[in-house]
Design goal:
alpha+beta, 5 helices, 283 residues
C-alpha cells in the first residue's frame, strides 16, 4: 500500500519488508480469528545490538577465517517473529531406584570395601509452564531450542503493531504435531529433577517409573529471533540470536591454514623448551 509494488511470498508469510520503499507490510489475514496468536514477546535487542552480540560471540571461535565476518554480510541480519506453541501441564510421577553407598577403609593387613543397597521410592508432581515448541518447518528445531530461554514476563497480548519493521510467519505445524516434542521435554526434565533427589548415593539405577500428564494448556505465541545466514566456501552457515536476550547460536567455519599454523607454532615452542631442558640436564 505504500508504493504500489507487488510482493510475493509463501502461504505462511505474515509480515515482510518491501524491498522498494522499505516499509513494513502485514498480511492481516494471517493473524485473524483462530490464527491470532495469544501473545507476543516484542524485540528487546535492536539490530545493532544483535550485530554486536554476534561479533562478540565470533571472537570465541577458534581459527575463524578473516573473510567470513564481513560487516556487509552481518548487516543482512533479519528480525523474525517465529511462531511457537507453548505448553503448560502438570507431570505426576513415581520412580523406583536401586541405590548404593560404598565405604572403603584399610588397616595394616587389608583393604576393605562395604556396599549397602537401598530401595528408593520417589513420588510427586512437577508443574511446567510455557514450554516452547517451534511451529514452523522453516527453522531447524536445533536452533530454536538452543536459543532459549525466553523471559515470559515480557510477553504481552498480541497486537499487529509489534510486527511493523520485522518479518513474521504464521505456524505451518499444528499444535497436535508439536505436543509429542513438548511431552518428551517434560519427561526428560522430570526424570532429571527426580534423579537429583538421589544425589547422596554413590550409585543409582532406575528400576521402574510411571508418568502421567494433567491440566494441559496450549497457547500460540510469536517469539523474537534475529536470523543471519552467511555463505562461505559454498556452505551456508546459519545463526540465530535471541531477540530478547542476545544469546547467539550457530556454527563457525575453521580456517585450516590458521589451525595448522597454530599447532606448528605450538609444536615449535614445545620443541624449543624440550631442547633447553635437555641442554641443562646434559651440561
Amino acid at each position: 500500500p505504500s508504493c504500489g509494488a507487488e510482493i510475493t511470498g509463501d502461504d505462511t508469510m505474515g509480515s515482510t519488508i518491501c524491498p522498494y520503499c522499505g516499509n513494513g507490510n502485514i498480511i492481516q489475514e494471517q493473524f485473524k480469528g483462530t490464527l491470532e496468536p495469544d501473545y507476543i514477546i516484542p524485540f528487546k535487542i535492536s539490530k545493532k545490538s544483535a550485530m554486536e552480540a554476534f561479533e562478540e560471540d565470533s571472537k570465541k571461535a577458534p581459527f575463524l577465517p578473516n573473510l567470513f565476518k564481513s560487516r556487509k554480510k552481518i548487516e543482512e541480519m533479519s528480525g523474525l517473529y517465529v511462531p511457537f506453541w507453548t505448553f503448560d501441564c502438570k507431570c505426576n510421577a513415581d520412580f523406583i531406584y536401586r541405590g548404593e553407598r560404598v565405604m572403603t577403609w584399610s588397616d595394616s593387613d587389608y583393604n576393605y570395601t562395604k556396599t549397602d543397597y537401598y530401595k528408593l521410592f520417589r513420588s510427586g508432581t512437577v508443574e511446567f509452564a510455557n514450554i516452547p515448541v517451534d511451529g514452523s518447518q522453516k527453522i531447524d528445531n536445533v536452533y530454536t531450542e538452543a536459543v532459549e530461554p525466553y523471559n515470559y514476563d515480557d510477553a504481552v497480548k498480541f497486537d499487529e503493531a509489534y510486527l511493523s519493521g520485522y518479518l513474521a510467519d504464521k505456524y505451518d505445524v499444528p499444535a497436535e504435531e508439536c505436543e509429542g516434542r513438548a511431552n518428551e521435554r517434560v519427561k526428560n526434565s522430570t526424570q532429571s529433577i527426580f534423579r537429583e533427589t538421589t544425589s547422596t548415593y554413590t550409585g543409582v539405577h532406575e528400576e521402574n517409573s510411571s508418568m502421567s500428564f494433567s491440566d494441559g494448556k496450549i497457547r500460540y505465541a510469536l517469539l523474537p529471533v534475529w536470523m543471519l545466514n552467511i555463505k562461505y566456501e559454498n556452505k551456508l552457515y546459519k545463526f540465530a540470536i535471541n531477540g530478547q536476550t542476545g544469546k547467539v547460536i550457530g556454527e563457525y567455519p575453521i580456517d585450516k591454514k590458521k589451525k595448522w599454523m597454530f599447532f606448528a607454532k605450538a609444536a615449535g615452542i614445545s620443541y624449543a623448551i624440550a631442547a633447553v631442558i635437555a641442554w641443562f640436564l646434559l651440561s
